[in-house]
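re: ur question from yesterday

yeah so i grabbed the chain u mentioned. its 233 aa long if i counted rite. heres the sequnce exactly as i have it in my notes:
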Amino acid sequence: MLRIVSTLLIIILLNSCASHPRIGTKRMEVGEVEYGYAFALENIFPYLWYRKGISDRSDIGFRVGLPIYGSGIDYSRRLYEKDNKWDMLNLAWSLNPNYNYDVTYYKFKQGKNKKNGEPPKSSWKGFRFMYIPNGISDKTSSRIGFLYGRNSGKRISYELGYYHDFSSMPIGDVFSPEYKPEGRFIELPHTTKFGFPSENSRIVGLSLQIFFNLSNNNSKTKTDIEPTPVVEN
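ran it thru and got these C-alpha coordinates back, copy pasting raw so excuse formatting
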Protein backbone atom coordinates (compact mmCIF):
# COMPACT_ATOMS: atom_id res chain seq x y z
CA MET A 1 0.00 0.00 0.00
CA LEU A 2 2.83 2.39 0.89
CA ARG A 3 4.48 1.69 -2.46
CA ILE A 4 1.26 2.51 -4.34
CA VAL A 5 0.80 5.78 -2.44
CA SER A 6 4.45 6.72 -3.04
CA THR A 7 4.13 5.98 -6.76
CA LEU A 8 0.99 8.11 -7.08
CA LEU A 9 2.67 10.99 -5.24
CA ILE A 10 5.68 10.84 -7.58
CA ILE A 11 3.36 10.86 -10.62
CA ILE A 12 1.51 13.91 -9.28
CA LEU A 13 4.79 15.72 -8.60
CA LEU A 14 6.16 15.03 -12.06
CA ASN A 15 2.92 16.11 -13.70
CA SER A 16 3.08 19.58 -12.17
CA CYS A 17 3.38 22.49 -14.58
CA ALA A 18 4.70 25.98 -13.91
CA SER A 19 2.87 28.39 -11.60
CA HIS A 20 2.28 32.11 -11.32
CA PRO A 21 1.65 34.77 -8.64
CA ARG A 22 -1.58 36.11 -7.25
CA ILE A 23 -1.12 39.86 -7.67
CA GLY A 24 -3.00 42.56 -5.80
CA THR A 25 -6.24 43.43 -7.57
CA LYS A 26 -6.27 46.97 -6.17
CA ARG A 27 -3.78 49.66 -5.15
CA MET A 28 -2.56 48.53 -1.74
CA GLU A 29 -1.61 51.01 0.97
CA VAL A 30 1.41 50.75 3.29
CA GLY A 31 0.81 47.99 5.84
CA GLU A 32 -2.37 46.76 4.15
CA VAL A 33 -2.68 42.96 4.14
CA GLU A 34 -4.66 40.53 2.00
CA TYR A 35 -4.66 36.74 2.19
CA GLY A 36 -6.63 33.74 0.98
CA TYR A 37 -6.37 30.59 -1.10
CA ALA A 38 -6.46 29.75 -4.81
CA PHE A 39 -7.23 26.94 -7.20
CA ALA A 40 -5.09 26.76 -10.35
CA LEU A 41 -5.11 24.59 -13.45
CA GLU A 42 -1.31 24.44 -13.17
CA ASN A 43 -1.35 22.88 -9.68
CA ILE A 44 -2.88 19.69 -8.34
CA PHE A 45 -3.66 21.13 -4.91
CA PRO A 46 -4.87 24.62 -3.86
CA TYR A 47 -2.31 27.01 -2.42
CA LEU A 48 -2.36 29.78 0.20
CA TRP A 49 -1.43 33.36 -0.72
CA TYR A 50 -0.53 36.45 1.30
CA ARG A 51 0.15 40.05 0.20
CA LYS A 52 1.29 43.14 2.08
CA GLY A 53 1.81 46.75 1.04
CA ILE A 54 5.39 47.76 1.85
CA SER A 55 5.39 51.31 0.45
CA ASP A 56 3.01 53.76 -1.19
CA ARG A 57 3.72 52.13 -4.58
CA SER A 58 4.96 48.59 -3.81
CA ASP A 59 3.69 45.34 -2.34
CA ILE A 60 5.10 41.85 -1.87
CA GLY A 61 3.42 38.46 -2.05
CA PHE A 62 4.06 34.94 -0.75
CA ARG A 63 2.52 31.63 -1.81
CA VAL A 64 2.63 28.25 -0.06
CA GLY A 65 1.46 25.09 -1.81
CA LEU A 66 1.28 21.41 -0.89
CA PRO A 67 3.75 19.87 -1.13
CA ILE A 68 5.41 22.58 -3.27
CA TYR A 69 2.77 23.40 -5.88
CA GLY A 70 2.38 27.12 -6.45
CA SER A 71 4.85 28.12 -3.73
CA GLY A 72 6.82 31.26 -4.46
CA ILE A 73 7.46 34.94 -3.86
CA ASP A 74 6.81 38.05 -5.97
CA TYR A 75 7.19 41.82 -5.89
CA SER A 76 4.92 44.43 -7.50
CA ARG A 77 5.66 48.09 -8.23
CA ARG A 78 3.18 50.65 -9.61
CA LEU A 79 4.79 52.60 -12.42
CA TYR A 80 1.89 54.85 -13.43
CA GLU A 81 -1.53 55.77 -12.07
CA LYS A 82 -4.25 58.19 -13.00
CA ASP A 83 -7.81 58.25 -11.67
CA ASN A 84 -9.14 54.67 -11.95
CA LYS A 85 -6.26 53.28 -14.04
CA TRP A 86 -2.74 52.18 -13.16
CA ASP A 87 0.18 50.20 -14.61
CA MET A 88 2.25 47.77 -12.59
CA LEU A 89 5.40 45.67 -13.00
CA ASN A 90 5.59 42.29 -11.22
CA LEU A 91 8.67 40.08 -10.70
CA ALA A 92 7.98 36.53 -9.52
CA TRP A 93 9.71 33.25 -8.73
CA SER A 94 7.76 30.00 -8.38
CA LEU A 95 8.88 26.65 -6.95
CA ASN A 96 7.71 23.47 -8.69
CA PRO A 97 9.26 20.71 -10.87
CA ASN A 98 9.26 23.26 -13.72
CA TYR A 99 10.33 26.10 -11.43
CA ASN A 100 9.99 29.38 -13.27
CA TYR A 101 10.59 33.12 -13.26
CA ASP A 102 7.96 35.64 -14.45
CA VAL A 103 8.25 39.27 -15.51
CA THR A 104 4.80 40.76 -16.11
CA TYR A 105 3.60 44.22 -17.09
CA TYR A 106 -0.01 44.81 -15.99
CA LYS A 107 -2.59 47.44 -16.93
CA PHE A 108 -5.44 47.82 -14.43
CA LYS A 109 -8.80 49.52 -14.66
CA GLN A 110 -11.14 50.00 -11.72
CA GLY A 111 -14.89 50.30 -12.05
CA LYS A 112 -17.22 52.83 -10.51
CA ASN A 113 -17.64 53.05 -6.75
CA LYS A 114 -20.55 51.20 -5.20
CA LYS A 115 -22.99 52.73 -2.75
CA ASN A 116 -23.49 49.56 -0.67
CA GLY A 117 -19.99 49.61 0.79
CA GLU A 118 -18.54 46.88 -1.42
CA PRO A 119 -15.25 47.62 -3.19
CA PRO A 120 -15.50 48.44 -6.91
CA LYS A 121 -14.74 45.71 -9.42
CA SER A 122 -11.47 45.82 -11.31
CA SER A 123 -10.06 44.15 -14.41
CA TRP A 124 -6.55 43.79 -15.70
CA LYS A 125 -4.57 42.56 -18.66
CA GLY A 126 -0.89 41.83 -18.87
CA PHE A 127 2.06 40.90 -21.03
CA ARG A 128 4.26 38.19 -19.46
CA PHE A 129 7.72 36.82 -20.09
CA MET A 130 8.18 33.41 -18.45
CA TYR A 131 11.43 31.49 -18.13
CA ILE A 132 12.02 27.88 -17.01
CA PRO A 133 15.81 27.49 -16.55
CA ASN A 134 15.82 23.75 -15.87
CA GLY A 135 12.62 21.75 -16.31
CA ILE A 136 11.78 18.12 -15.58
CA SER A 137 13.53 17.08 -18.83
CA ASP A 138 16.63 19.16 -17.99
CA LYS A 139 15.83 21.62 -20.78
CA THR A 140 14.99 25.32 -20.77
CA SER A 141 11.85 27.08 -21.95
CA SER A 142 11.35 30.78 -22.71
CA ARG A 143 7.75 31.92 -23.17
CA ILE A 144 5.83 35.10 -23.87
CA GLY A 145 2.11 35.69 -23.85
CA PHE A 146 -0.89 37.59 -22.54
CA LEU A 147 -3.29 37.27 -19.63
CA TYR A 148 -6.63 38.69 -18.55
CA GLY A 149 -8.07 38.88 -15.06
CA ARG A 150 -11.09 40.26 -13.25
CA ASN A 151 -12.07 40.90 -9.67
CA SER A 152 -15.73 39.89 -9.82
CA GLY A 153 -16.53 40.76 -6.23
CA LYS A 154 -15.16 41.34 -2.77
CA ARG A 155 -14.02 37.74 -2.33
CA ILE A 156 -13.47 36.13 -5.73
CA SER A 157 -11.26 36.95 -8.70
CA TYR A 158 -9.81 34.99 -11.62
CA GLU A 159 -7.01 35.13 -14.18
CA LEU A 160 -6.57 33.37 -17.54
CA GLY A 161 -3.45 33.40 -19.71
CA TYR A 162 -1.33 31.58 -22.26
CA TYR A 163 2.44 31.89 -22.75
CA HIS A 164 3.96 30.35 -25.86
CA ASP A 165 7.36 28.74 -26.35
CA PHE A 166 8.21 29.62 -29.97
CA SER A 167 11.20 27.27 -29.99
CA SER A 168 9.06 24.21 -29.21
CA MET A 169 6.26 24.49 -31.80
CA PRO A 170 4.66 26.87 -34.33
CA ILE A 171 2.08 29.10 -32.67
CA GLY A 172 -0.38 28.26 -35.45
CA ASP A 173 -0.54 24.67 -34.21
CA VAL A 174 -1.38 25.46 -30.61
CA PHE A 175 -5.00 24.31 -31.02
CA SER A 176 -4.17 21.28 -33.16
CA PRO A 177 -4.77 18.03 -31.20
CA GLU A 178 -2.91 16.04 -33.87
CA TYR A 179 0.28 18.09 -33.80
CA LYS A 180 3.54 16.10 -33.75
CA PRO A 181 6.97 17.78 -33.56
CA GLU A 182 8.96 17.73 -36.78
CA GLY A 183 12.09 19.39 -38.14
CA ARG A 184 13.92 21.50 -35.60
CA PHE A 185 11.09 21.04 -33.07
CA ILE A 186 11.94 17.33 -32.59
CA GLU A 187 14.79 18.32 -30.27
CA LEU A 188 12.24 19.67 -27.76
CA PRO A 189 9.60 16.95 -27.21
CA HIS A 190 6.40 17.88 -25.41
CA THR A 191 6.35 14.78 -23.22
CA THR A 192 8.91 13.10 -20.99
CA LYS A 193 9.92 9.45 -21.32
CA PHE A 194 7.29 8.72 -18.65
CA GLY A 195 4.56 10.35 -20.76
CA PHE A 196 4.17 13.53 -18.68
CA PRO A 197 4.16 17.11 -20.10
CA SER A 198 7.70 18.46 -20.44
CA GLU A 199 8.79 22.05 -19.86
CA ASN A 200 8.35 22.63 -23.62
CA SER A 201 4.76 21.39 -23.73
CA ARG A 202 2.03 23.87 -24.67
CA ILE A 203 0.15 22.68 -21.58
CA VAL A 204 2.81 24.35 -19.43
CA GLY A 205 1.99 27.69 -21.05
CA LEU A 206 -1.71 27.56 -20.10
CA SER A 207 -2.75 29.28 -16.88
CA LEU A 208 -6.16 29.48 -15.18
CA GLN A 209 -6.44 30.59 -11.56
CA ILE A 210 -9.39 31.33 -9.26
CA PHE A 211 -8.59 33.34 -6.14
CA PHE A 212 -10.55 33.53 -2.87
CA ASN A 213 -9.89 36.50 -0.59
CA LEU A 214 -10.35 35.68 3.11
CA SER A 215 -9.05 38.94 4.56
CA ASN A 216 -11.53 41.30 6.20
CA ASN A 217 -10.03 44.54 4.96
CA ASN A 218 -12.34 47.53 5.02
CA SER A 219 -9.76 50.13 4.01
CA LYS A 220 -10.83 52.39 1.18
CA THR A 221 -9.14 52.51 -2.15
CA LYS A 222 -7.77 55.77 -3.50
CA THR A 223 -10.83 56.40 -5.64
CA ASP A 224 -13.14 55.67 -2.67
CA ILE A 225 -11.80 58.40 -0.40
CA GLU A 226 -14.31 61.21 -0.03
CA PRO A 227 -13.18 64.80 0.50
CA THR A 228 -13.35 66.12 4.05
CA PRO A 229 -16.30 68.53 4.39
CA VAL A 230 -15.47 72.16 5.12
CA VAL A 231 -17.14 73.53 8.27
CA GLU A 232 -17.92 77.20 8.09
CA ASN A 233 -17.94 79.32 11.21
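noticed a couple things. The chain is about 5% helix and 40% strand. also Strands lie at 33-40, 47-53, 58-65, 71-82, 85-95, 100-110, 122-132, 141-151, 156-164, 206-213.
anyway ttyl
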